[in-house]
Amino acid sequence: MNNDTTTGEAHAASESGAPAAAETLPVVPLADTVVFPGMMLPLVIGRPESVAAVEAAIRDARPVALLLQKSKDAKALQPDDLYHIGTLANPLRYVTAPDGGHHLVCQGMTRFRAGAFDRKDGYLTVVAERLSDADAAPGPQLEARLLALRHQALEALSLLPQTPEELVNAVRSIREPGALADLVAGYLDLEAADKQRILEALDLSARLAETSRQLEQRLEVLRISTRIRRETQEAMGAKQREFILREQLQQIQKELGEGDDAKGAEIKELAAAVAKAGMPDAARDQAERELKRLEHMPEAAGEYSMVRTYLDWLIAFPWTKETADNFDLAAAREVLDADHFGLDKIKRRIVEFLAVRKRNPEGHAPILCFVGPPGVGKTSLGQSIARAMGRKFERFSLGGTHDEAEIRGHRRTYIGALPGNIVRALRRAGTRNPVLMLDELDKLGVGFQGDPAAALLEVLDPAQNKSFRDTYLDVEIDLSQVIFIATANVLDQIPGPLRDRLEVIELPGYTQSDKLEIARRYLIVRQRKQNGLADDEIVLPDATLSAIIDGYTREAGVRQLEREIGAVCRAVTARIAGGKPGPYTIAPDDLHAILGARRFEDEAALRTSVPGVATGLAWTPVGGQILFIEAAATPGKGRLHLTGQLGDVMKESVEIALSLVKSRADKLGIDAALFTERDIHVHVPAGAIPKDGPSAGVAMTTALVSLLTGRRVHPDLAMTGEITLRGLVLPVGGIKEKVLAAHTAGIRRVILPARNKKDYEDIPEAARNALDFVWAETLDDVLPAALEAAVPQAAP
Ligand SMILES: Nc1ncnc2c1ncn2[C@@H]1O[C@H](COP(=O)(O)OP(=O)(O)O)[C@@H](O)[C@H]1O
Ligand SMILES: [Mg+2]
Asked: For residue 766, what are the CA distances in angstroms to 444, 447, 511, 543?
C-alpha cells in the first residue's frame, strides 16, 4: 500500500484551491517511527547522510522531510526504499552527545508528498509538496467518528497507568478530527507500518476509521490485562479484609471477655496441664505466674512463644512420675547375665548395690564409675543396670563440655535458651528416677564459662541434689531419686573432687577367649538380626571368629570385632539377595574374600626378624599397646639420633640405655669401636598417641644390645620396665593393660619388673594362662630371656 497514493491524490484534488507549495528539503529517513503533525519527538540521528541533512536544515532554517523506510534495516537508501508520504518537521534542538551520538528534537508540522529526489552535498533532498488536511464539511458521520474515537481514546488513557493529565485534556478538547486522529495515532503503541497507513490516510473519514480500528485492537488487549490485574487484586483484597475482620473480632471478644479463640483454648489447656503436672508449690506458683503473663500477651509477640516454651518444659518435667524399682536380686542377676558375658566381679558389685538400695532406698547410693577402654561394655552395662532395676535409662556425654550452662541450662532471657543436660535427660526419661549415665566424664572440658565440674559436683552430691536449680527452669528440682552412673576411659583425667565422689569399677578389657565367647553369644546374634539373616543362614565357627579377632581387630573391647562380624553378615545377606540361598558356613579362609587382607599380621614376628628390634609394651588412655623399638647403626662418629615423637623422659631413657650398654660392652661382647665409628639411631614408630615415660627402658636396652651383638630378640616376646644406669629394672604402671595388649597381639612371653609381681593378681586369668612371665630384677635377667643365641653373622 506504500505507494498507493490514490487517496492522497483524490484528497489533494479536493483541496481548497490554494496551490500546494513545493520546496526542496533535506530528507531524514526514519527506521521505525512515524512523526505525526503536531507531535514533538526526539530522534537519534545515526547515518552520516542524515546528520548532514539535519545540519543543512538547521543552517538554512528549513524543515526536514521525514520519510519512513520501507524496511527498517535498509542501509544504502534509494528513493524507492522510502514511503513517499511523510512529515515535514521543524528542528527544535540539535545536540551532539559526548559519546558522539546526534539527537534531534523536532516537531511535526504537516504531511507532505515526496516529488523528485536528488542527492547533493552528501545528503538526500526531495521536492516536497505540503498536504494540508482538507477542511471537509464536518458532516454528522465525521462528527460521529470523532466522538467515537475520542471515547475510545479516553478509555484507553484511563486504562493506561500514569497517563499525563495534559494528554487527557488534549483528547477532550481537540475539535479537529484529523488532529485528534494524529494525536491518538502518535501516542498509540503501533507498528511503524500501521502508523504509516494512518499517516497516508488523507481522507479524514478514512483516517478516523483506521485510527479507530487500530485503537480498538489495543483497547481489547488493555481491557483484558486490566481485568486480570483487577481480579488478582480483588483476591488479595478479600484476604486482607478477612484478616482485618478477624482482628476486630478478637478485639471485640476480648472486650467482652469471651476470648474463646485459639489462644484462649491453648491457655486453658496449659492451665489444666500445670494443675496435673504435680509440681512442687514453688514451681507451681511460678508456672501460674507465667500463665497469667501469657494471657495478657498478644500471640504474635516474640515473648509469647518464649513463655509458652518455658511452660512446656515445666509441665513436661517428671515432677512426680517414677517407676517402681525391681528388687528381685536373682532376676536382676539374670538380666545382667543375659546382657553381658563374664564381668563376674562387676555383676556381683552391681547386685550388692541393688541389695543396699533395697534395704535403704533413701540412703545415699554410691555413684558407680566404669573405667576402661572403649568397647568394653561400660555404656551397655549401665543400660543393663536400668533394665535389671526396672528403671528408665538415659545418658549424655560430657565430652567437650566447657560451659556450665550445658549442665545447668541457660538463662531464659537468651534467645533459644534451653534447660541443661540433666533436665533434658530427665524429660526424655519421663521419670524422676531413671538411671542417668554421665558418659565420658574424663572428657569434661576445663571451664570457659563457669565450671562444669562444679555444677556436676552439685548434681552428684546427695546433700545438695535434692534441690538442684537448673538456670532455665529457675525452680528447684529433686535429683535425689536418680541413680547416676559415670564412665571414663581413664581415671586420672577426672577432676579430683569429682573423682572422690565415685566408686570406681574397672573394666580393663577382654582376653582373646573372652572375645570369642562374647562374639559367639552376643555379637553374632545381634549382627545376624541387624542384617536380616535367619539363625541358620550363617554359621561362624570358632576358628573363624578367632581369625577375625587375631587378623582384623586390635582392641581391648569388642567394637571393631562387632563391626567385622557385621561386615561378614552383610556379605552373606548380599549373596542370599543375589539369589544364592544359604546356609553359609564361613571358614577362616573365606575371610580374605570378605574382609580383605588380614590387617594385623603377626607383626611382632615380622619386625623382630632382624637384630635391633625389641617389642615393648605401652600404656595409653585407651588401653595397652605393643610397640616396636628399632635401633640401627650407620657409619658415623658415635652420635645418637632419636626419632618418632618421643617425649623428654623417653629420650632420656634412650641415653641411659646407651650408657648402660657402653659400660657393659665388654661383658656383652660388643666391640667398643662400634661406639665411635657408628652413629646409632633409635626409632619408636609414631603411633596415634605421643609416647613418653621411662617404661620402655628395658626394651630400649634390649634393642641396643640386639643391634650391637647381632642377636635377634625372640619374636614372641614383649617387655616393659624402667632401667637404671646400673642395670636395675624398676617397676612401672599399667601392667594389666600391657599384658592384655601383649596377649591380644599374640605374644607368648612377657618380661616384667620383678617389683610388679603384686599386679599379677589383676591380670585376667585367660591372659595369665596363655602367657609365660619372666620377672626381672636386673638387666641380667632380661638379656638371656630376650635374645636368641648368637647367629653366625657379623655385627653391623
Ligand atoms: N561382656 C560383654 N558381653 C556382651 N557384649 C558386650 C560385652 N562387652 C561389650 N559388649 C558389647 O560391645 C559393644 C560396645 O560396648 P559399649 O557399652 O558401647 O562400650 P563402652 O561404653 O565401654 O565404650 C556393645 O554392643 C556391648 O553390648
Ligand atoms: Mg560408651
From this structure: 34, 42, 6, 18
Residue nearest to atom 26 of ligand 1 (CA): 377
Q: What is the tens place of the pLDDT at every residue in 644-691?
A: 777 888 889 999 999 999 999 999 989 888 888 889 999 887 654 556
Q: What is the Cα–Cα distance from 249 to 241, expressed in whole angstroms?
A: 12
Nearest to 625 by CA among 525, 721, 705, 742: 742
Confidence at 577, pLDDT banded by 50, 70, 90: confident
Strand partners, 488: 371
- Least confident range of 201-205, 245-249, 704-708: 245-249
46-to-78, 81, 102, 125, 326 alpha-carbon distances in Å: 17, 17, 7, 17, 100
Mean pLDDT value across the chain:
85
**Which pLDDT does position 254 carry in this prediction?**
65
Closest CA to 598 of 337, 578, 606: 606
pLDDT at 601 over 80: no
Q: Which ligand minimizes its atom distance to the CA of 439? A: 2
Closest CA to 745 of 545, 555, 612, 548: 555
Q: What is the pLDDT of residue 638?
A: 86
Q: What is the pTM for the complete model shown?
A: 0.54
| Cβ-based neighbour number of residue 324 at 10 Å | 9
Dihedral angle over CA of 741, 445, 384, 548, nearest 10: -30
Tally of CB atoms within 10 A around 705: 28
The pick from 380, 507, 622 for probing ligand 1's pocket by mutation, whose C-beta has the most ligand atoms within 8 angstroms, reads 380
The residue from 50, 384, 695, 706 that is catalytic is 695
120 is catalytic: no
**Enclosing H/E stretch for 624:** strand 623-635
DSSP state of 523: I
**508 C-alpha to center of ligand 2: Å?**
14
pLDDT per residue as tens digits for the range 734-771: 999 999 888 878 788 999 999 999 999 989 888 898 89
For the question of residue 659 being annotated catalytic, the response is no
Three-class secondary structure of residue 753 per DSSP: strand
Q: Which of 347, 392, 515, 738 is flagged as catalytic?
A: 738
Reduced to 3 states, what is the DSSP secondary structure of residue 435?
strand
* CA–CA distance, 114 with 86 (Å, rounded to integer): 7
Residues with CB under 6 A from ligand 1: 340-343, 374-380, 487, 518, 522, 557-559, 562
Residue with cell 538380666: 335
Q: Average pLDDT in the 50-77 region?
A: 88
